[in-house]
Amino acid sequence: MSTGSAGDVARSTLRPHCETPGGTPLRTSSRTFLRASDGVPIDAVYDPGAAVYDVSRTPADHPVFVVAHGFTGAVDRPHVRRVARALARYGAVVTFSFRGHGASGGRSTVGDREVSDLAAAVRWARELGHVRVATVGFSMGGSVALRHAALSEEAAEGTDAVVSVSAPARWYYRGTAPMRRLHWLVTRPEGRVLGRYGFRTRIHHRDWDPVPLSPVEAVPRIAPTPLLIVHGDADGYFPVDHPRMLAAAAGEHGELWLEPGMGHAEHAASDELLGRIGEWVVGRAG
After folding, report:
1. pLDDT at 180
2. Most buried pick, 165, 202, 228, 269, via CB within 10 A?
3. What is the spatial distance between Cα 68 and Cα 70, in angstroms, rounded to a whole number?
4. In the chain, which ranges are continuous DSSP H helix?
5. What is the pLDDT of residue 155?
6. How far apart are CA 121 and CA 33, in angstroms?
């Protein structure tokens, strides 16, 4: 399933904002379909967030958070919208559905080709006028954010700060019961049927070929971009050796937050934690 680098992405199929007579973009919420480098349509939403309340400043003055959801998530899922609302206090927010999820096209490759989906969302954020872009990924989306930051070759697709929450460090991990269930869901025909109709997630039937760069291999390539790794010490999917491996690979350019009592991904991220993430991004990329 692998492709090369994050690659080129097509521009959005709909210009998401109008302009004043003087040419200044109006800050309005919008929704459109982007296209990844392989042509897959990606459902995306823009929320101007904090920027809408400060008419004296342009979008370039505010950071934008590009949120990459976890496996079986989607742009309209309540937990994704909650994350967007929390981060909107600190800047604009772009949310989107990965391929195979929600209204986006294609089938999920569980973190491989999804790098192109995130690249399309980042490019759109920059087209909207934002100079400072931070990616915030959860679980599968966290691994995609790490690989995207390592593989992006074009400035228009690059990021100014990376936050990875509840991400794995390595592929094919089956050390916990939830991950064994997830592997069954992805690799078995009956599992993919359940994924489609039970979780509204369309999963590709082909194995990775070649196996994509793993998160822990990607992390050293991210420097000097600021990197924050967030993980709960009660994560039922990936135990704490995963974030510690990522932090060790990041060295001095990465920061690790081990959150006491926190479980896995968006559902477990409190508003207080999301606020701290927002402040961290503003301090690094804002």
Report:
1. 97
2. 165
3. 7
4. 78-87, 114-127, 140-151, 177-187, 189-198, 215-218, 241-250, 265-268, 271-285
5. 67
6. 10
